[in-house]
Design brief:
With 331 residues, the protein is of the alpha/beta class. 29% of the residues lie in helices and 18% in strands. Helix 2 runs parallel beside helix 3 and helix 3 runs parallel beside helix 5. The two termini are 29 Å apart. The N terminus is likely disordered.
Length: 331
């Protein structure tokens, strides 16, 4: 049974996993229209009245900190398209100085916000980038340009944000030939490259032929046998398995969400922009938290979270995933 241990204030599920990391979507809106995430037109976005206000998110984070959560990642859509996002991050860090705050972004707006994000003591930035090819980037995002992303990355570096990861979903026939270029780019820009298995979130987009397993990704890395697995990484470092290149000094992460999932060490929860708690990315069951948040009923909110965590599935393989849209869940 999920339990709140008074002495340690830890949130644990029925399988003994400690939940200490929460990803909160602040908006379902995005300035891109990536082909694997949302349609080009006809996107119906949540109204402002539907999503949690910043003061609501602040209250929710306070509750989670009492449950032992120490890291919050803010996602979307694209989190930086929401007005007031950066001041909110600064206020949150001032209110809870011991927590780690992070964002996942497409980097297109980093050039504008990087100095303020640095002032907000942001712990890390994950950048979603699947290709360095300008034409492919334009095609897959439908709107964006690679130059604004590269400018954003460099602006963040100039502002002093050094803990940045480059997240690339590897898809056969699309970007699998770019591994070396991505690795060289990451080395040059001081980023940690993580190659991610293509997950079956949207049935009309995913297919077996496009899927590349983590084992095959490892075999495709340049320098072959020079890559040595880092056995010291933990779930605190994220879901990736890390490999170190003894010849070049590079480190790379491979996220095997499909072929060798990491459910047994999962330490995360997700909250959608409208305040729905999801205990597993692939589990469509969600728990409504918004009403309790708006009422500022902290005790009831804690119990609701505990009750939901009690039902966190053992493994996503146990679930009929259906057709999930990341823009609605939070990337």
């Amino acid at each position: 049974m999920a339990q709140l241990t008074e002495a340690k204030r830890e949130l644990k599920d029925d399988f003994g996993r400690r939940l200490n990391y929460v990803r909160i979507s602040v908006t379902d809106r995005c300035n891109f229209r990536c082909t694997y995430c949302m349609p080009e037109e006809g996107v119906t976005c949540l109204s402002h009245s539907d999503i949690l206000r910043y003061e609501d998110i602040m209250f929710l984070c306070g509750i989670f900190t009492k449950l032992g959560v120490g890291k919050f990642r803010f996602t979307g859509g694209e989190p930086l398209v929401r007005k007031g996002m950066v001041p909110f991050l600064k206020e949150l860090k001032e209110a809870y100085p011991n927590i780690k705050t992070a964002i996942t972004t497409n980097a297109s707006l980093l050039r504008r916000y990087a100095p303020e994000l640095a002032e907000a003591s942001l712990h890390s930035i994950n950048i979603s980038l699947d290709t360095l090819d300008a034409d492919k980037f334009k095609n897959v995002t439908r709107i964006g340009t690679i130059d604004e992303v590269l400018d954003g990355i460099r602006a963040a570096k100039s502002a002093g944000i050094n803990n940045m990861k480059l997240n690339t979903v590897l898809i056969r026939g699309f970007n699998d030939h770019e591994i070396t270029d991505l690795l060289l780019f990451a080395r040059r820009e001081g980023l940690l490259l993580r190659l991610i298995e293509f997950m079956p979130l949207e049935e009309e987009v995913w297919n077996k032929e496009s899927f590349i397993s983590g084992e095959e990704i490892l075999s495709m890395l340049p320098d072959g046998a020079s890559w040595v697995k880092n056995t010291n990484s933990s779930c605190e470092d994220g879901p990736a398995q890390y490999y170190f290149n003894e010849k070049t000094g590079d480190t790379i992460g491979i996220i095997t969400a499909v072929s060798n999932h990491f459910c047994q060490s999962c330490n995360r929860l997700r909250v959608s922009a409208e305040g729905k708690l999801r205990t597993c990315l692939f589990n469509p069951k969600e728990t409504e938290l918004k009403e309790l948040i708006i009422r500022r009923d902290g005790a009831a909110l804690m119990e609701k979270i505990l009750e939901s965590v009690r039902e966190k599935p053992r493994c996503w393989n146990d679930i009929n995933t259906g057709n999930l849209h990341m823009s609605g869940i939070g990337g």
